[in-house]
CN hydrolase domain-containing protein (Candidatus Glassbacteria bacterium GWA2_58_10), 286 residues
Amino acid sequence: MAAALVLIAALLSSASAADFTGGPFIAGCAQIFVTGDVQQNLEKILACIHRADSLHVRLLVFPEASLSGYGPEHFKDKPVPGQDVLDKALDRVRKAARETGIWVLAGTSRHGEDGLYNEVNLIDDTGTIRASYDKAQLTEGDATYYQPGKEISTYQAGGIKFGLEICYDIRFPEPWRIQALEGAQIILHAAQACGSSSWKIPVWEGHLRSRAAENGIWIVSCNAAGPVQMGKSYIIDPDGLVVAESNQDNEELIYGTVDLSRENIVNVKRRRTDLYRIAPLENQTP
């Protein structure tokens, strides 16, 4: 019996994540209503992961704070769930990713030593967290609850390079360009842009299409379902063209084919670096 357990442990530890270098794959956005109830959010997330599995989705993006609930929206009158509750819920998401073989980007809140952070975690198809990013650009409402992230990073995972962004980061083109210059082929963007006015929808779409076209990258951007979305969910190719788009305010799963062999880096190559330059600052605090 002991020998059998050792063998099982060895097999589990030797499991390795699949990569995205084998050709086109299907990516998806799970546009869900996010609440302040971790269990309710978790049930929706797990259902979407299993639904995505039936559609052969290999990479699934969820909204900002989709697991914990979003500070300015859901925790005005009650405390943010404790880290132990959030960790247990995230473990369930990791298990679902492992069971289905889907890479998942899930948003949550994280209790750090100096305060609360707005975080996304990139989970691979073995259930391993491959990258985490704390939201750098905070809105006025964000700053009431969250500390700003302290770095801009590009992440090597699955044989390719990812960039990660959260919601309001969309308004600032510099980090997206930095990630593209560092070799990012696809940027995953999680958002909770709801509750204000739908007049921002074309502006939101314009930002995403510009970020994709000016940097020659794929973008998978998932917003929460509302109420009153300020932007929809999109999959956008390196030419800035929409591959998949959600309906406004609806809970739904959209998906489309991503082909990373396609690139459009002519604009990046033509930059006049003799006139201007962009680079991250050491120890920069956003």
Summary: DSSP finds eight helices and twelve strands in the chain. The first strand starts at residue 25 and ends at 31. The helical segments are 2-13, 38-54, 71-74, 83-100, 140-143, 173-181, 201-215, 266-269.
